[in-house]
Prior knowledge:
Strand order of the largest sheet: 2-1-3-4-5
Number of strands: 12
CATH class of the largest domain: Alpha Beta
Distance between the termini: 27 Å
Low-confidence stretches: none
Number of domains: 2
CATH topology of the largest domain: Rossmann fold
Amino acid sequence: MRLLLVEDDQRLCAVLVRGLREEGYIVDVAADGPTGLAAAESNAYDLVLLDLMLPGLDGLSVCRTLRRHQQRVPIIVITARDTNEERIAGLDAGADDYLVKPFVFGELTARVRAVLRRESLNRSNQLYLGALRIDLTARRIWRGDQEVVLTARELAMFEYLLLHPDMVLTRSALEERVWPQEFAINSNVVDVYVRRLHQALGAEGQRIETVRGSGYRLRVRQGAADA
Length: 227
């Protein structure tokens, strides 16, 4: 899953990014309000972690603008503002949760999981592909009773393909979804990861097809037209 962290405290940001990536999340970072707002409106994030005291545009304004533009991405406010009035203002602005600094990292990840679980109630969190069962909330895959283990980036790519069945996804779209914005990647990195998925997923992995000149598609329906 891909998260956006909007935080101007560089030291805290580095700690959170390292911890979240170790948990398997793909994390993009914005250090001010306008950049965070632009990133949230132009990318498909699963969740936004939003500080309130930001340069350029405060977090409450970012949150209100996203909701006014019908952006339903879950938002967790992380802030040193701890009065009841400020909590109410944050939730009224459209935040899904409110976490006061300083906090224990484990509490942050627990709240991330809780918000993502609530979000998953609006959609099925279990997908099936051939003999594979994929739990989107737990971010785990099984073939029967045997778990199929993927790296965080392999899982992120497969998850994105699963959520767009029979659609042609360009290499650039896959790169933007799977790798953080500041991550320098080679031109053939998507092809390398598709080959890894072919190997790790067996017959189901072979459903990931190359669409020459366009990108990749996860074939689900028989007879899906080429594009």
